[in-house]
Design a protein that fits this description.
The complex is a heterodimer of chains A (about 170) and B (about 250). With about 170 residues, chain A is mainly alpha-helical. In chain A, about 70% of the residues lie in helices and about 0% in strands. Chain A has nine helices and no strands. In chain A, helix 3 runs antiparallel to helix 5 and helix 5 packs antiparallel against helix 7. Chain B has one domain. Chain B has eight helices and no strands. Classes of the chains: A mainly alpha (about 170), B mainly alpha (about 250).
Amino acid sequence: MIPLIAYIAAAALLLASALLLIFRGRNQATLRSDSEREINLRFLENPGLDLAERIFDPADFCWLRDELKFPEQATVLALQRKEMALLWLRCLRASFNELVRIPQSAGTSSENDSESSGWATTFYTLRFQFLLAYAMMVVWLFGPYTRIAPSFNFLRPILSRGTHKQRFGLRV
Amino acid sequence: MGFVQFTLAVLGLGLEAALILRARQGRYLSHFPFFYSYLSYVFVWTIFTLMFFYFMPQLYPYVYWFSYSMMLLAEFAVLFELSDHIFRPYPGIRRLGQLLTGAVCLAFLLVYIIPALWRHQPSSIAFFELEKRTSLTKVVLIIVLLLVARSFRISFSRNISGMMLGFAIYLAASIANVALAEGLGRARYATIFSLVSPLAYFLALSIWTAALWRYEPVLPNQGNFSRGGDNFSEPLSVQLGRYSSELSRRFRR
């Protein structure tokens, strides 16, 4: 009886989700104006990307905590920066999606289009989305001053050890 | 086959013929080749099965189940086509529909469908299992496609929405119907079982007829803006790759 109920519930749930998503998808285009899209796209240019340097830079936080000795204020600053970092990441995703959504006919030559229509663009899009989702998770869990991409510096000594003979001072 | 089933089959034939003729008249058959091939297939096989039912009833079950199992497979091809149509106008994610369809189908095939077929069980039960599991796979695929499209804020045309909606209703009804037949016992549930599937298919056909009566091309959100301002002439793949690398570089600091 449990599989029966589970299957019927799954069918009902899936149908309800499909209905909801289809009706929302029909009205998606009316949500944004051209100027909004333009602003979104401008976010991907250097000023938008440079903003991240300031948000993710821990210098202010360290100065407040270590030099001025205000650890509480430093914590408040870190929390505010965390919100800003998450907002910045969400804006970046929206801007990137806007770029991805630009249709074929809006300003590219046919040569460029054929080149960009392949799997490479899909790969870049997916890589960007995964990276962004991971970054949002890390910022949300550990704050904006955590190193987002893990460092592989600990591998450096192992990789640069050379051959067995070199390590023991023997001639190769 | 009762009166209701026969009536539904005849009405279904009428709607299928209307859909195909309308698309032929409007010259948009080629826009959805798999979908119209699927409809033509169902149309032809419905006539065949009706003929077998009245003139060679001993062969009817074999013909019916053969055509039905082919239909189950053909539906995957239609969903593949639909997934392609959703993302096709956007060069940056043009292949995403194909990728998602392939990934979902392969994952469900390996983890969910094939293990059920390996079990020792009578062929009729195995067929029910196959129908239930393939239908669930298709509905999950529809949900995944819709969710991903929503995350990119992609809007659907009337044609695509109608086709998705029709399939979702028909497949969800199939899952519930087969689950009920297995749970309550096929003998006890036989009368309702033989009604639900044709009824759900007829409902789906009605939705498809309304949605595909007129061809509505997908109109991506066009605006008077360039791609990333100064990078107007840069191919999209280069831009996407650059942003992706830039993000990785910044996060590695």
